Amino acid sequence: MGRWEPGARERLVVAAVDLFTEQGYDATTVAQIAERAGVTKSTFFRHFPDKRELLVAGQETLSRLLAEGIVEAPDDASPLEAVAAGLERASSAMGSMNRDLAPRLKAAVAASAELQERDALKSVSLAAAMTTALIARGVPDTTAALAGELGVLAFKRGYAEWSEGERDGKDELAAYVLAALDELRAASASLG
Amino acid sequence: MGRWEPGARERLVVAAVDLFTEQGYDATTVAQIAERAGVTKSTFFRHFPDKRELLVAGQETLSRLLAEGIVEAPDDASPLEAVAAGLERASSAMGSMNRDLAPRLKAAVAASAELQERDALKSVSLAAAMTTALIARGVPDTTAALAGELGVLAFKRGYAEWSEGERDGKDELAAYVLAALDELRAASASLG
């Protein structure tokens, strides 16, 4: 898909987030995004079905990586250790472009009810991907559902800190996400 | 709001779910829903901004009841005991009409990406309502976020069992939701 236009997908995402920031999500058209990215509308539609899907473009990749990491974790890994393996794998897909875009992306989502809904469904999908992979490992249904939710919570909290944080030594998303998972694990002891 | 038309709100919800089931969500118009419910379009818009919001009509009420139950729980209640109090309060808002509608509502949501997104945002809102109420009780941020997610998971799992289950002695939604919360609490011990 689109290999004759290297970087078109990334350019489209950057162009869209810039336009959403400048003029709002509702006022931005696919034609404007394509023009800003220097590609045709047809190229846009080879990469994304519409402007909304563009903002959750990573969902399928993240779901796949989360599931792979969980499935391939050592046999004796606990449910949360398997989730940690999935989170580490998925985090590796998010690089400096994602980090630079994150604040503008967050602002665009905050300003659009439509994008908030799509974003919420993304969380549900990621939790489901982890839960399904855990069940495939033989984890009981309820434990798997709980571990999947914890994984999403850790990913969201780690991602938020990573994208807002200082650019210090702990630069990889994975470090933030795994620290968030540890915090949640510790917190689960004080639920009562 | 609409007190001169008793039951209009409930009739609109039932009419909408019936029409979504019969002909699909996308093909159903506000005018058709109003006609089926025996009210005018103006009455529809006095109750709901659009057909999508109609399906998450209870969100604000549920959020309020969840928060009230949590805030009013005894001072010495643990975070999960406070969540249980919130869940019990919120469950009392769901009666036999909700139970009868549940299977058709579920089918309508399953058939529409738009409704799935709105439904996902509802879960996020309910979790946020619980988390905020727990923080107001002095529960640390991470523990509150985790307890809020557990509360939503318990509500969704209990609601699913309640709406699909046999009409036996355990007939109140609250009983199903609190049983689901207990299961999740037990499962959290085996996360590793």
TrEMBL record, chains A, B:
The keyword Disulfide bond does not apply. GO terms for molecular function: DNA-binding transcription factor activity; transcription cis-regulatory region binding. It comes from Nonomuraea jiangxiensis. Coiled coil: none annotated. Keywords: DNA-binding, Transcription, Transcription regulation. Residues 6-66 form the HTH tetR-type domain. Gene3D superfamilies: Tetracycline Repressor, domain 2 (1.10.357.10). This is Transcriptional regulator, TetR family. It comes from the Bacteria. InterPro entries: Homeodomain-like_sf (IPR009057), HTH-type_TetR-like_transc_reg (IPR050109), HTH_TetR (IPR001647). Residues 29-48 bind DNA. GO terms for biological process: negative regulation of DNA-templated transcription.
